[in-house]
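[job 0412] stage=fold_complex status=start
inputs:
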Amino acid sequence: MPHIIVRGIKAEQMCEISTALVDELAAICDCGTDNFMIECLQTTSVFAGKIVETYPFIEVAWFERGLETRDLFAKALAKHVLSLGVKEVEIAFKTYREDSYYVNGERCFDV
Amino acid sequence: MPHIIVRGIKAEQMCEISTALVDELAAICDCGTDNFMIECLQTTSVFAGKIVETYPFIEVAWFERGLETRDLFAKALAKHVLSLGVKEVEIAFKTYREDSYYVNGERCFDV
Amino acid sequence: MPHIIVRGIKAEQMCEISTALVDELAAICDCGTDNFMIECLQTTSVFAGKIVETYPFIEVAWFERGLETRDLFAKALAKHVLSLGVKEVEIAFKTYREDSYYVNGERCFDV
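[job 0412] stage=fold_complex status=done
writing structure:
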């Protein structure tokens, strides 16, 4: 965590920015870079009767870290993505509950 | 938004219904048709030791619009999907928080 | 429901454990085995400028069943996955609201 789930941007493009992006996000989150996953999801988009290019959209799955960190995270993520020449990107955060997250079957956090 | 994430139904099938579907959903949500994304996700389903066809399932990601709109949205979406000859479809809504949604790094909504 | 959405583990591997896994999970949830979906999602993961193997991660989408059931579910799921020789697996639960779930356009639960 955080997981950065990417639609509409190629994995090869994400490779270009991944090191600098994760360094910056790790500093914002005050955690190690190896906590991050960037995963590109292949989807087939449909609009007005035709298959179209997928709109650049990123869902960040993480534990809630508050507004200030979220704003900084979104700004940094968008900055790196837009630097690729992507015209627009939308980002939504979804939160996992800390008492609903397990490593090797063991709950990570007490309730 | 809304994002209509489809599993177990082919993109080509979604193409057939996409225009009438999005017109109807835009009327229900009182927003423009260009706010909608329909994206088909390829998954490989497993049951009882074998790879099987994926069950038709749609996750709608949106901002909460209340029960009445949600009921109408689900009914319209199911009607169009079932018109394709799909036998059954389940639909779940997940909500993004408005203070957790960003366009080009800028938060869309004040908190 | 529950939906078991798998990243970083092959469908062929999930086939090997699927019958015993679903039998055990159905007993924990006190529901029929045909309520379960196991779906493998293909993602392309990026780290440090390169495409890398996807980390084994499972998202369980279900209705909230409480801590005790969740702990047992995660433990059983991890046990079966680790029996495949997978070294580590993380599991997160996400809940659908019962008033936001529809079968063939009909809401499943009263509000």
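[job 0412] summary: The helical segments of chain A are 11-29, 67-82.
[job 0412] exit 0
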